[in-house]
């Protein structure tokens, strides 16, 4: 479990004339389960990519445990991307490779150039991968090609792949957006279990209000790149959402609930 806070100070990202993320300052405490909500184009995905350093900020900074993340280069940056694991909406797996190999790819940041090129993994790493698959109820699929799995299974493989990175923070960018309710529940339950059992800080972008309320200790609502709300699920009432997003925004959130699942997050 990481004892370090993640600190965002004046974080800004512009694309041409558009402020995708504008002057965001937050402190994410260790072990929190944080949901980031907002309508499409609110800046949620850009925010997570800034934290993982998949893109660089136009202004402001990110720090973790006193380390300036926005200043990292080369090997130190690759290590940060391993420490700050990212789960994508579209799974980011290699369809033609089996599930076990896809999970082991999460270990490549810990390898030198040559062993990365040959994908030469140790027995210890293979054991780590099997243990991660076991946590996600996917051991029977270990030797199946990833492309043959359902969307929900592929997303759980992606979580197992993130787990073997042995990260200090886990980011998930709309991980249930393309899943049916049953698979969405399995994925959210898996993230909640990792958060509570491992004490891992989890930040997840969500398009559905009820899912955020059910699972997250803390909810951050964004609009037009700005943070409009930062508080607990209980504080994020329909009235607050209506004030932030208007009636149409509230309707959009509530309608989206029918396409995903919301199950209470139980802490250990």
TrEMBL record:
<dbReference type="Pfam" id="PF00005">
    <property type="entry name" value="ABC_tran"/>
</dbReference>
<keyword id="KW-0997">Cell inner membrane</keyword>
<dbReference type="InterPro" id="IPR003593">
    <property type="entry name" value="AAA+_ATPase"/>
</dbReference>
<keyword id="KW-0547">Nucleotide-binding</keyword>
<keyword id="KW-0472">Membrane</keyword>
<dbReference type="GO" id="GO:0016887">
    <property type="term" value="F:ATP hydrolysis activity"/>
</dbReference>
<dbReference type="InterPro" id="IPR027417">
    <property type="entry name" value="P-loop_NTPase"/>
</dbReference>
<keyword id="KW-1003">Cell membrane</keyword>
<dbReference type="InterPro" id="IPR003439">
    <property type="entry name" value="ABC_transporter-like_ATP-bd"/>
</dbReference>
<dbReference type="InterPro" id="IPR017871">
    <property type="entry name" value="ABC_transporter-like_CS"/>
</dbReference>
<feature type="domain" description="ABC transporter">
    <location>
        <begin position="6"/>
        <end position="249"/>
    </location>
</feature>
<keyword id="KW-0067">ATP-binding</keyword>
<dbReference type="InterPro" id="IPR050086">
    <property type="entry name" value="MetN_ABC_transporter-like"/>
</dbReference>
<dbReference type="GO" id="GO:0016020">
    <property type="term" value="C:membrane"/>
</dbReference>
<dbReference type="GO" id="GO:0005524">
    <property type="term" value="F:ATP binding"/>
</dbReference>
<dbReference type="InterPro" id="IPR012693">
    <property type="entry name" value="ABC_transpr_PhnC"/>
</dbReference>
<keyword id="KW-0813">Transport</keyword>
<protein>
    <submittedName>
        <fullName>Phosphonate transport system ATP-binding protein</fullName>
    </submittedName>
</protein>
<keyword id="KW-1278">Translocase</keyword>
<dbReference type="GO" id="GO:0015416">
    <property type="term" value="F:ABC-type phosphonate transporter activity"/>
</dbReference>
